[in-house]
Specification:
The protein is of the alpha/beta class. It is about 35% helix and about 15% strand. It has 18 helices and 18 strands. It has a 5-stranded parallel β-sheet with strand order 5-4-3-6-18. Strand 9, helix 14 and strand 10 form a beta-alpha-beta unit. It is globular, with a radius of gyration of 23 Å. About 45% of the residues are buried. The structure holds flavin-adenine dinucleotide and iron/sulfur cluster. The site of iron/sulfur cluster (SF4) has 15 residues, from helix 3 and helix 4.
Amino acid sequence: MADVLKRVPVREQEPQVRAKNFDEVCLGYNAEEAVEEAQRCIGCKNAKCVQGCPVSINIPGFIAHVKEGNFEEAYKVIGESSALPAICGRVCPQESQCEGQCIRGKKGDPVSIGKLERFVADWARENNIKPVGAEEKNGKKVAVIGSGPAGLTCAGDLAKLGYDVTIFEALHKAGGVLVYGIPEFRLPKDGVVQPEIENVKALGVKIETDVVIGKSVTIDELMEEEGFDAVFIGSGAGLPKFMGIPGEQANGVFSANEYLTRNNLMKAFDESYDTQIAAGTKVAVVGGGNVAMDAARTALRLGAEVHIIYRRSEEELPARVEEVHHAKEEGIIFDLLTNPTEILADENGWVKGIKCVKMELGEPDASGRRRPVEVAGSEFEIEVDTVIMSLGTSPNPLISSTTKGLEINKRKCIVASEECGATSKEGVYAGGDAVTGAATVILAMGAGKAAAKGIHEYLLNK
Ligand SMILES: Cc1cc2nc3c(=O)[nH]c(=O)nc-3n(C[C@H](O)[C@H](O)[C@H](O)COP(=O)(O)OP(=O)(O)OC[C@H]3O[C@@H](n4cnc5c(N)ncnc54)[C@H](O)[C@@H]3O)c2cc1C
Ligand code: SF4
């Protein structure tokens, strides 16, 4: 008899093997394992896990079907709330959301809700089960800007309500961070992301790529000349931040966004493509978030020795615990309580090292975390040929600067209602990273959902 306090372990590629390939690290549950793990759910009446889910998936409801081996019904239950379950099952921070609230977690391991969601979504894909669209169109047109999780969710929900929805995407491929940011080894593109985008298209959503709103066409033109009744902005937060230290202009300094985009979208890891990057043999990644872990683990797979340089201690690392654990297992070196002060370049302008200073933790700052303070006289150098800056991103100002009457805040984020996504401009709604700054897939999806509801109510009353 299995120990009900322990979750059914999930199979993963061995660290030494996966450190040299871009295949998915986590292999997920098979049907037998999923049914066994589902038995651990006690089907709480007032389920705390649902309260922890930003899109309120009926978790006990779908797990009850998994227990019975009725995976198609389980998929339908998830589909009532989420259009991207195979993605969320892989990248959502479940430990701080649904699983963080699971009653089973009080005495043992919480139910592996994310792995069960992933299993159900993968099963549905492999068995060609598709979500169902609206039977009739209502004749109203909505434009969605950006094809990340916020845009895809908003578009899918509106299409289900009968709207004629077109997504405009600046890049040549739809998916936002799901395709250009999160690496293949955590989220396979052709196998997982593309089929979920196809599901949204199957609801009737059109996607036009290579259209930069604010350059190719403005929001005002979409509404005044192209006949769109409402617009949703889900343009994300893709503008990288830098430290402003000497040497940051040297060759071999990347933003994490560029490094990951070149690898994911331009397939730099695949030698058959002619879009390779100078990936580096000794790489410093500055920052401690999920994006830093992704950049570091990508550089490792491209053959480099990789150092994470982070100014606080391990306890304050903002990345998910699972990501830090995987990075360590694979051999990433963590230089903690360390802060860069200068990037050193050779006579040809290429990076040859990074000058750092040791830090110690002082009193808590405004974020509640202990403030890192420099240790006097502790400067030292690390020899590296590539530096990847992973210090966060902010929304690109292109849309706000070309749209009359659209209010933004000090952080250049679009001001929008949390309940319904309404902005300061009539008929224009917004959500996801463009409003909150860099956050998570599920929060972007939640905002896309709320805005779809807001747009529907607005257009019903118009
Ligand atoms: C490397 C990396 C790893 C991450 N890992 C995780 C994780 O593990 N778990 C998690 O929950 N979150 C993770 N995140 C965060 C998460 O991916 C984002 O919060 C989420 O994708 C935001 O969704 P969005 O739809 O608001 O924006 P995005 O996904 O950024 O999509 C915005 C889209 O809009 C397009 N666009 C921008 N401007 C225009 C324009 N003017 N005209 C037309 N199109 C435009 C962009 O090209 C893009 O495709 C990660 C982020 C990064 C960068
Ligand atoms: S809180 Fe945990 S045990 Fe209760 S319904 Fe949710 S997943 Fe099942």
